[in-house]
Specification:
The protein is an all-beta fold. It is built from no helices and 9 strands. Strand 6 and strand 7 form a beta hairpin.
């Protein structure tokens, strides 16, 4: 059985799954996920209105995160949830 990688409603909110982490957001975001569980390297790319909101690389034992201007990321390491936030305009 295939595991679920993404569920989202474009223009609203969504969730994606990568390397045993849940990534969530509550704004218009187009996600691209490469769950590298078998290779040990996963990648998440979130694009908002043509610009990169966030990029994440999942490599044991950690995560490298780069966020675009106007975006931030909140990590809950206990529940393995990453929330992408967008600054209000």
């Amino acid at each position: 059985m295939k595991k679920k990688i993404m569920e989202y409603q474009y223009n609203y909110e969504g969730k994606a799954y990568c390397c045993n982490w849940t990534i969530q957001w509550n704004f218009k975001l187009e996600p691209f996920v490469k769950d590298g569980e078998s290779s040990g390297v996963g990648r998440f790319l979130g694009i908002d209105d043509g610009q990169i909101a966030v990029q994440m690389w999942f490599v044991e034992p950690g995560i490298k995160i780069e966020n675009g201007q106007g975006y931030s990321v909140m990590l809950d390491t206990e529940s393995k949830v990453i929330t992408i936030l967008k600054k209000d305009e």
